[in-house]
Amino acid sequence: MPVSNFQRIAWALFDFANSSFPTVITTFVFAAYFSKGIAPDEVTGTALWGYATGAAGFLIALCAPIFGAIADHSGARKPWIFIFSALCVCGSSGLWFATPEASSIPLALVCVGIATFGFEMAMVFYNAMLPGLSVPGKEGLLSGLAWGLGYLGGLCALALVLFLFVQTDTPLFNLNKDLAEHLRISGPFVALWYGLFALPLFLWVKDHKQRNTLSNALLQGLSTLKGTLLSWREHKTVFQYLITRMIYTDGLNTLFAFGGIYAAGTFHMSFSELIIFGIGINVTAGIGAALFGWLDDKYGSKRVIISALFCLTLLGAATLWVEDKSHFLILGLCLGLFMGPAQAASRTYMAHIAPKKLRTELFGLYALSGKATAFIGPFLVATTTDIFTSQRAGMATILLFLLIGLVLMRNLPDIRTQQN
Question: What is the pTM of this model?
């Protein structure tokens, strides 16, 4: 049965649903509450938060390829998306019980770790559905639309949390600010948002039929994964790309992680200014992802990725050069225009080069490539900043990841059709 545009939009809405988690929980609202309201001090809070998310990242890197291989042999992907989405929803809901006292530290970290694991694992199976749902030759358009909706979803969720609960004297439901209920509500809010907008995918998007038992799929999947890794030369392009993506994704992730810290420290931006800046970047990134989806299909994912990395490098260098806050804000918003396309086109390129029979398994390795060396970028930024006692020097190391990724990407083939 052919796939309808309605089903494609229903699939893309999953990005709209789950993007509330990284935006509200791990970037702006709950992360700040944990370091300032639960942990004894911000330094300790930042370190503990890093350990928790790092542990989740290690589990994701370990499990994503394995579960991806299993899914390729079981056939169905939506059950896995449901299971891991449920983990994210439950973990987010549990954050309501993280009261502003040190005794809540274990609960908060466990809930965040579970939710992060569920969020990332669900994306493995969600991404693998892209080639089967898109119109042949229009994969970039659908991927870009989904990424754009993701940024929009994160933006809307963040705006509602801020205006309904955080930045108002009378939070909705008469929440008690003295008990940080206006901040703790961000967890259940994200859980509700995620669950509500993920429903269209589960209700209306078609899935592969279950063609194997779980035990057989496990055995066959692990055997296939082992064979894929041992015969990497047969999938040389895929593994070259995964290494390339691993490098430039380290740069992108570090830029996300330290951009706010750099803005606050070097340009002395207030919390309110950072929130507005974050909303602005979400807007430009969403616009960029949606617009570049058309260019992805017309000129190929490789050219979009190269163009995005080139512009990110130039604009990133400019943000390290300027001294004026206004110029920094303009350059930062321009950076957002190319962050979305770099991510959306990366997913499309992977969909093109992954053989159909190994698609979910290879998207598991794709997730691994985004997590395996995620510690290197932050470590270099921290070390360089410490050595030179300069945030600008530390942030300059991010440009190395983008440049290396740019050079390596140029050597990869310009593949524009899905492999069988």
Answer: 0.78
